[in-house]
Amino acid sequence: MATDQNKFQAIISHCKEYGFIFPSSEIYDGLSAVYDYGQYGAELKKNVRDYWWRSMTQMHDNIVGIDAAIFMHPTVWKASGHVDNFSDPMIDNKDSKKRYRVDHLIEGYADTLPEAEKDAVIAAMENYLKENDYAGLKAFIEEKKIACAVSGTVNWTDIRQFNLMFSTEFGAVAAENEGDNKVYLRPETAQGIFVNFLNVQKTGRMKIPFGIAQVGKAFRNEIVARQFVFRMREFEQMEMQFFIRPGTQQEWYAYWKEERMKWHKSLGLKPEHLQFHDHAKLAHYADAAVDIEYNFPIGFKEVEGIHSRTDFDLSQHQKFSGKKLQYFDPEINQNYVPYVIETSIGLDRCCFMVLSEAYEEQEVGTAEKPDTRVVLKFPPKLAPIKLAVFPLTKKDGLPEIAKHLIAECKKNFYCYYEEKDSIGKRYRRQDAIGTPFCVTVDHQTIEDGTVTVRHRDSMEQERIPLTAVKEMVMKAMMD
Q: Are 272 and 238 in contact (CB under 8 A)?
């Protein structure tokens, strides 16, 4: 798993410099593992979110979307298993008092090893975790002399589980009996779908198989949140739960596994940058699980999970609520609790993936006149700004023509107007935020109604009619 820390750091710096992603509360020295999306990052994130939403709901006759509340009845999380099982194995260094997630600690050590040794270490770790052998895992850490990054010692506590849910008080006055009004910030969006299963099925007259999609914030109290927006305490998920007849889960699991890989490739990602990774240890609710991983500058990492969740969720909520969550299937004249295939993708990770794929540093000059540029090669449908329009000068009516073109186009897509600096400098700024097309309005425009279009990726320029600009951009957005 090759990594490129220089590229990783360059992307982080670029995101801050060009208005994509900022450290949250930066004027107060920030808040660990919390980030704000700037003007271009917010637009990129919205474009990715909208593209996913359309592909799930608009392009499928049997998938609908909902927007469930972040706060839910606390028994929801007892029924789902999060209160008892939503935890990660943690270990503390006795000298530095620093706490680590065990898998992160071992993965960090493995990254320093040659490929063959690294694979052996990861395989051993996964086997210990699969067996819940925490004593063996601690002995393994000590045997490999995996040290704390702060103290440099191997003086570790025993491994123990740490629950990742944030809790808070519900209501203005704390209850006398502590815990009576305790609620959680949801650690996933899936449960909002499950508790609304019958509401959606009945009001939408949905027939199995059908899906419910949702995009929303989730919160996890990660002890070691790291690697930019890859692992945060507040993040956004795009999930779809697909309800099916029991016994058909293998067929639908295979279907959604391939469908989701096709979607990732439709983002313009190179096929060799994507791979499947089957889970070594299944979650308590699953009978099959696979991740779609992308080759980030920090190596292959999970972006999306596809899980066959059986009937665990609906059965648990049926048990804890005392309400039947069954479906009558007229084709087989039978009531049953549906099985579920889940697709769950992190929106922030997806944006990071798109940024990683798009980011390039290029030598674009000649031997006599060397030059470089940083360009973000976003697919036009995802680019924050689709079209930049430049008047060659600030006089002779050129700004008026440029602004008229902007007015014509901005109802359909985001545009940017700029008249400061040389055309070359303006091109470079648009390259850096990923704008696919730049149009220059010059004196020839007045004569024959044509403009110069400069294409971001090839840097080639061509003359086209002013009246053809809007159609050109919209066609590119459809690809």
A: no
> Diameter of the chain by CA atoms?
81
pLDDT at 368: 82
Residue 231 counted as an annotated binding residue: yes
348 is annotated as contributing to ligand binding: yes
The three-state secondary structure class of 109 is helix
Residue 155 lies in a domain: no
Say whether 454 counts as a known binding-site residue: no
Q: Is 335 annotated as a binding residue?
A: no
pTM above 0.70, yes or no: yes
Same domain, 312 and 408: no
**Strands ordered across the beta sheet of 274-278:** 63-65, 210-219, 234-244, 339-346, 299-310, 288-296, 274-278
DSSP, res 93? B
Whether 230 has a binding-site annotation, put simply, is: yes
Q: Confirm or deny that 163 is annotated as ligand binding.
A: no
Residue 293: HSE in the Cβ half-sphere, 13 Å Cα cutoff? 17
272 labelled binding-site residue: no
42 alpha carbon, distance to own chain's centre: 13
Question: Any known ligand binding at 304?
Answer: no
Range list of β-strands (E), 319-468: 327-329, 334-336, 339-346, 359-363, 372-376, 387-391, 415-417, 437-441, 450-455, 461-465
Helix or strand run (H / E) with residue 380? none
Residue 228 is part of which domain span? 5-69+189-355
Is 302 within any annotated ligand binding site? yes
Q: What is the DSSP letter of 467?
A: G
176 annotated to a ligand binding site:
no
User: Within 13 A of 100's CA, how many CA atoms are on the CB side?
Assistant: 27
Mean pLDDT (10-residue bins), the chain, 479 residues: 80 96 93 93 98 97 97 93 81 91 89 87 88 91 93 94 84 54 91 97 97 96 77 95 97 97 96 94 87 95 96 96 96 96 97 97 83 94 98 93 96 95 94 98 95 96 96 94
Residue 49 belongs to a domain: yes
Q: Would you list the DSSP string of 304-358?
A: EEEEEEETHHHHHHHHHH-----EEETTTTEEEPPEEEEEEEEHHHHHHHHHHHH
222 is an annotated ligand-binding site residue: yes
Do 441 and 341 lie in one domain? The reply is no
CA-to-CA separations, 240 to 175, 218, 296, 337, in angstroms, rounded:
36, 15, 24, 18
Asked if residue 395 and residue 252 are part of one domain, the reply reads no
- The answer on whether 344 is annotated among ligand-binding residues is yes
CB 359 within 8 A of CB 10: yes
Cα distances (Å, whole numbers) of residue 222 to 108, 233, 300, 339, 429: 17, 6, 20, 30, 36
373 is known to lie in a ligand binding site: no
